[in-house]
Design a protein that fits this description.
By secondary structure, this protein is mainly beta. The chain contains 2 helices and 35 strands. It folds into 2 domains: 117 residues, Lipocalin, CATH 2.40.128; 291 residues, YVTN repeat-like/Quinoprotein amine dehydrogenase (Methylamine Dehydrogenase, Chain H). 4% of the residues lie in helices and 48% in strands. The longest helix has 12 residues.
Length: 426
């Protein structure tokens, strides 16, 4: 039998190995939400930032830049400075990391006055890219002028769907099961509209229907899908009398019919599906019989109008419209409403969460304006916000109002669409 040999490891080597393990850099997070307070009793300043190299850059663009000096198991060191730091306040932060949170102390100073140093504190919550299973997510449809991005809400993977070369985006509605998006292409006197069906499962344009020979060659300004998926309902101009009217498209056959005039209304009015009934976006009901269905759907449309899950209230983006101001059922200036009806998400200069019914506003940080669309997942857990003139969609956790991911999508989003909220019909 061989002899057992004992190998001696010096204490200095053990120390070196342990220090190396502790100082091993951690994976840098994709999103870093940080709040600083340098004067006790003042308003805490919070920033949502995203990773770029060895920096966290402000989201949306503009404002402070955060240089990452250290991010490992021993702690974190950051330096915050404005884009143009000449004569401005800068901050140096140190702290510790526990899980996906960090906190510590901050020293605020001015390069032009090195003797002035103000202490404070800071805390942060950070996120890595979601690693959910793609087969378990919903389809988020991001509509851009010549392309649709299909984002899986579980892992935020993206599939691009190019629109036919001759088509540009006009309006969109999503089926009750979320597997299809219906696109009304933009139209003018020389180019009649078409209805395109985007298959969210296959990631292709599966069908194209020309409206050139119909009584609504311009198609729909805004439209919705019936709860059973059999019919599209939309508002457009009748070429025979140049009046604004409601039209339907039978999905299986593609046949378009005009069924009701919209008297005394303007082009900015959209349709909303609330339960099993159709309404104008100002809350006025339409006396139109819907197909029988076992479920009720509460849909949004391309005009930033969405119904509450109880079917009693509407979010209406156009705050200044007289229709919205005078309607007790429509809340002006908002773009999304939580499934329980208790929170409204307003799209203006920043996104703000408001208790519903309307009460005091609660700031949700400096967020994108939502100019490219804003939708909630059917469970209300995630708010997606897009901005025109970017190629990004921002994902917020509605429980904390924190940004947790930024998704690169097609250029210049115009609107967002997702599976409507549903419930069993009463």
């Amino acid at each position: 039998m061989g002899r057992m040999r004992w190998v001696s490891i010096s204490s200095s080597l053990l120390l070196a190995l342990s220090v190396a393990a502790v100082c091993e850099p951690l994976e840098l997070p994709k999103v870093f939400n940080i709040c600083t307070e340098v004067t006790p009793g003042t308003i805490t300043v919070c920033r949502a930032t995203t990773l770029s190299g060895r920096q966290f850059l402000p989201t949306p663009a503009g404002g402070d830049v955060i240089d990452i000096k250290r991010f490992d198991r021993t702690g974190i060191t950051l330096h915050i400075s404005p884009k143009d730091s000449h004569g401005e306040v800068v901050m140096d932060l140190t702290g510790t990391i526990v899980g996906t949170s960090a906190k510590g102390t901050v020293i605020e100073s001015m390069p032009e006055h090195p003797g002035i140093k103000i202490p404070g504190k800071w805390n942060a919550t950070f996120f890595y890219p979601p690693k959910g299973r793609s087969g378990h997510g919903k389809n988020l449809y991001v509509a851009c002028p010549d392309e649709i991005s299909i984002v899986n809400t579980s892992d935020h993977s993206v599939r691009p769907v190019k629109l036919p070369a001759e088509d540009k985006f006009g309006a969109m509605a999503v089926s009750t099961d979320g597997t299809k998006a219906y696109i009304n292409t933009a139209a003018d006197a020389l180019h009649p509209a078409r209805l395109l069906v985007v298959d969210g499962t296959e990631g292709v344009v599966s069908r194209s229907l020309s409206l050139a020979k119909t009584t609504m060659p311009g198609g729909f300004w805004g439209f919705v899908v019936s709860a059973d998926g059999s019919t599209l309902y939309g508002i457009g101009y009748n070429k025979a009398n140049n009046e604004l009217e409601v039209g339907t498209v039978d999905v299986p056959s593609g046949e378009l019919k005009i069924i009701a005039p919209i008297l005394g209304k303007n082009l900015m009015d959209g349709l909303i599906l609330s339960g099993t009934k159709l309404y104008l976006s100002d809350g006025a009901p339409l006396d139109i019989k819907m197909p029988a269905s076992q479920i009720s759907a509460f849909s949004s449309n391309s005009h930033g109008v969405v119904a509450s899950a109880d079917g009693e209230h509407f979010c209406a983006l156009n705050r200044d419209s007289a229709n919205y101001r005078d309607s007790p059922r429509a809340v002006g200036g908002c773009m999304a409403i939580s499934p329980d009806g208790k929170r409204l998400f307003l799209g203006e200069q920043v996104v703000i969460v408001q208790d519903a019914p309307p009460g005091s506003l609660k700031g949700a940080g400096v967020l994108p304006s939502g100019s490219g669309g804003m939708v909630l997942t059917p469970d209300g857990a995630t708010l997606y916000v897009a901005e025109t003139d970017t190629s990004m969609v921002y994902a917020y956790d509605t429980a904390t109002n924190l940004l947790y991911d930024v998704v690169n999508v097609c250029k210049n989003p115009r609107t967002l669409g997702i599976q409507p909220m549903t419930r069993a019909s009463k």
